[in-house]
């Protein structure tokens, strides 16, 4: 797995995926693609980022064995997360009410990890994975608050 994520995040993904390396790698690649796409959308992209984005999508995700085996289920959740992200970008500069939704929707990609957990372990495991992800990503000192994000 590329070292794009910290060891604790890698461990979390391996827990969520029940040790399935290809499923965890799929999630890492999807996360990396989303970060590159976000940089491009925000104008923070570096030269070559569009080519890197295409390389991740077509050179990693589309050939990942876990993705290939479950692409029908995964495509729907990925497209929903993408639609949520797009709506979040439209509302992030609106009134506070809309911004509060944008703050949540911008993190919709993690629902793909919950879907992966469901594929690998059923609904009860997906519920446990959802809890593990929430605790790891949204608690603690390094969590960005709504107020910090608005600045």
Describe what this molecule looks like in 3D:
This protein has one domain (7-150). The chain has helices at residues 7-16, 21-42, 49-59, 65-91, 96-105, 110-138, 146-150. The protein contains 7 helices and no strands. Helices cover 75% and strands 0% of the residues. α1 (7-16) crosses α2, α1 crosses α6 (110-138) and α4 packs across α6 (110-138). It is mostly helical.
In short:
The protein contains seven helices and no strands. It has helices at residues 7-16, 21-42, 49-59, 65-91, 96-105, 110-138, 146-150.
How is this fold's topology laid out?
Elements lengths: L6 H10 L4 H22 L6 H11 L5 H27 L4 H10 L4 H29 L7 H5 L1
Helix pairs in contact: 1-2, 1-6, 2-3, 4-5, 4-6
The counted number of beta strands is: 0
Share of helix, binned: over 70%
Total helices: the number is 7
Low-confidence parts, pLDDT < 50 over ≥5 residues?
Answer: none
Biggest sheet architecture: none
Give the count of structural domains. 1
What does the average pLDDT come to? 87
From the alpha carbons, calculate the radius of gyration and give it in angstroms: 16 Å
Q: Proportion of β residues?
A: under 5%
Shape: globular
Output the helix-strand order.
HHHHHHH
Q: Which structural category fits the helices and strands? A: mainly alpha
First-to-last CA distance: 34 Å
Which descriptors would you attach to this protein?
151 residues; mainly alpha; 7 helices
């Amino acid at each position: 797995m590329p070292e794009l994520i910290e060891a604790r995040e890698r461990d979390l993904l391996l827990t969520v995926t029940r040790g399935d390396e290809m499923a965890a790698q799929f999630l890492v690649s999807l996360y990396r693609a989303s970060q590159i796409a976000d940089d491009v959308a925000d104008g923070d992209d570096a030269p070559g980022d569009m080519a890197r984005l295409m390389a991740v999508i077509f050179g990693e995700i589309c050939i990942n064995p876990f993705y290939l085996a479950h692409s029908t289920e995964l495509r729907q959740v990925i497209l929903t997360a993408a639609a949520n992200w797009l709506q979040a970008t439209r509302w992030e500069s609106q009134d506070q009410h809309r911004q509060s939704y944008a703050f949540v929707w911008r993190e919709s990609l993690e629902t793909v990890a919950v879907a992966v957990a469901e594929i690998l372990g059923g609904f009860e495991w997906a519920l446990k994975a959802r809890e593990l992800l929430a605790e790891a990503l949204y608690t603690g000192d390094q969590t960005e608050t709504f107020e910090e994000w608005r600045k």
